[in-house]
Amino acid sequence: MRDDLSTLTREELEREVRYWRAQSLLLAEDFGGLRAQLASHADEVETLRAQLLSYAQDLNREYQLVRQRTGEIERLLVATVGALANSIEARDPYTRGHTDRVSRVTLAFCSRLGWKREQLSIARMGALLHDIGKIGVPDAILRKPGRLSPAEYEQMKQHPQIGAQILQGIDALVPAIPFVLSHHERWDGKGYPQGLAGREIPIEGRILAIVDAFDAMTSTRVYRAPLAMEAAMAEIVRCSGTQFDPELVPVFERLFADGLIHQALESELTLELYVV
Ligand SMILES: [Fe+2]
Questions:
Q1: What's the rounded Cα separation, in Å, for the pair 219 and 93?
Q2: Which of 128, 159, 254, 255 makes the best surface tag, with the fewest CB within 10 Å?
Q3: Residue 2 has pLDDT above 60, yes or no
Q4: Residue 53 CA, ligand 1 centroid: distance in Å
């Protein structure tokens, strides 16, 4: 716009006015177009947002469903495994409740060692099934009161391998095999079936060896009265470095001192108790 309008002639002034009126109309049109564009983009953004929200909700529903199904399958598997384990105990009344107690204490122990949910789930299966191979041991040996003859003992010693062979056929239980196969190995190499020593023995076997022995000592057997837990603990400590892993024994001792073995034996056998 010109600076000094007072010097313009009437025609020039009218021309100026027409010019600026046209300019402002053009600007108004542009502005209207921009506003329309922005509005249509806002619609697109809103549609995208709604779509994303709906995808997220679908995904979440799927996830919940998968989780629910996984949980159901796991419960079913645990129930089946429990039934299998009970079938062993039904034949051997002196070990009634043994696998259940061993499972509880194994969970508490593995949890203290920092194991996560999936590993704990496998540990529970392994502990429940550790003696499943006794299915292949004759009743006359399994239920024999008193000492076994050397030949009978040889047959009894087959149970970890028989158990491992049984689990080999069930994909979901394969990860539990080290518990089953190695729970009678000894730190000093004098155990069975493979005679492994020290860290050659899978950690699963080294853990279960302690828990299994602890429960065997504290439960009633036909040929002897149960030991008090404190006495059984002292025996485990005495055999640290010969029968048991000398690094795991102190962890087990602390677990006992903290009252967590008592707690495990008294509470329901549930993973959630140990999953952090
Ligand atoms: Fe065993």
A1: 12
A2: 254
A3: no
A4: 54
Amino acid (1-letter code) at residue 146: G
Query: 51-71 burial, b for 16+ CB within 10 Å, e for fewer?
Result: eeeeeeeeeeeeeeeeeeeee
Look over the chain and give the mean of its residue pLDDT values, rounded to a whole number.
88
Q: For residue 181, report the distance from its CA to the centre of ligand 1, in Å.
A: 9
Is the confidence at residue 3, as pLDDT, over 70? no
In this structure, what token pair is assigned to residue 203? 């950690």
Q: CB of 146 within 8 A of CB of 168? A: no
Residue 207: its pLDDT value, please? Answer: 98
For residues 54, 57, 63 and 69, what is the CA-based torsion angle, rounded to 10 degrees? -100
CA 80 – ligand 1 centroid, Å:
20
DSSP conformation letters of 48-60: HHHHHHHHHHHHH
CA of 248 relative to ligand 1 center, distance in Å: 19
90 CA distance to ligand 1 middle (Å): 16
Q: Ligand 1 center to residue 101 CA distance, Å? A: 14
**Helix, strand, coil percentages for the chain (3-state, nearest 5):** 75, 0, 25
Query: Residue 272: what pLDDT?
Result: 63
How many angstroms does the Cα of residue 76 sit away from the middle of ligand 1?
Answer: 24
Domains of the chain (ranges; CATH) run 91-273 (1.10.3210.10)
